[in-house]
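Review form for a predicted model. The reviewer records the input and the model, then writes brief findings.
Reviewer: anonymous (R2)
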Amino acid sequence: MTYYTDLFSPETYEAFSRSKRDVTGFRIRQETWAKRIQVGDKLICYMTRLGRWVGVLEVVEPYKIDDAPLFYTDNDPFVVRFLVKPVVWLDKDLTVPIRERLVWDKLTFTKGARPDTSTWTGKLRTSLNHLDDADGEFLERLLVAQQDSVSTYPVDDEKFRRLISKPVRRYDKIVTVTVPDDNDDFEEAPNAVEPAVRESHQMQGLLASIGETMGFRIWLPKQDRTAVLAKWTPKIPDGLLATLPLNYDETTLKTIEQIDVLWLKGRSIVRAFEVEHTTAVYSGILRMADLLALQPNMDIRLHIVAPEARKEKVFTEIRRPVFSLLDRGPLSEYCTFISYDSLEELADIPHLRHMKENVLDEYAEEPE
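Model under review:
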């Protein structure tokens, strides 16, 4: 018997709570990981955005591909499905915060880590990550005991309501969106903007260095080059492109040229990155959406890079209605989040030059 993660958003937590709780589902891209799950394995369930452990599910049968609407009324994305039985499933006010000291100081991937960094989030970037036996056994005991506990961790209903995405029908399918509340914004400290800008240049330089190491040529916006080149020196003469070798209309080219970092192979853009350091985390997301609107058939992986503390703000913005109703499809299906800490972790991988660029996806997080 082995333990794995099963991530729920607030809306899927509520949907599963209302259901018979006998089926859990994952996206088709996770089928490869699903193949290793055996009958009797246990899924330790974690609610994102709220940061809480919510239950334990035991796998009853091997996975099946089933696209019959279950979690969504149509175009259900969670088609890799396991029949499960709940060992424990907690009501919202009994769910256990991961930052509770009795949990934080016990788990192998959080113990000793600072809660305000993302160095500990690797296990919780995606579902079906393997958990150490000690962590799985501890969490199962904790959650089973919590079922009958007098200890509660009350959730503010208004805050929880704001975390839940709303379904909207597109012409082709139903998508979930969020409408940011004015209370979700905050004021930047008067002297905080300039240091953040400098840090963003450092991240642009790190992205350029990683891309060049993996064999890509790099594009940086011309207005950023002086600052970024103070932190990154190309190792090959044409590592940094002077002009983009792309055959697009002027409007598209002007949009692409402003994106913070591009990785190119030949005449094709492979990855595009926006490093967000502003309060609204909005300008880079707008550029990504503009690019998809101008070139809906362009096959590019898009990433927003920002501090871990900005992750939920990024996800909230990506799920805005205006970005969820693009002709190509919701921006949330094409754009992922990478934290500064995760980027630094990626840069430290030995033999990075011999790895394929899809290793980046192991460090990217999606808005569920």
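Findings: The radius of gyration is 21 Å.
Further findings: Confidence is low (pLDDT under 50) at residues 182-194.
Recommendation: see findings above.
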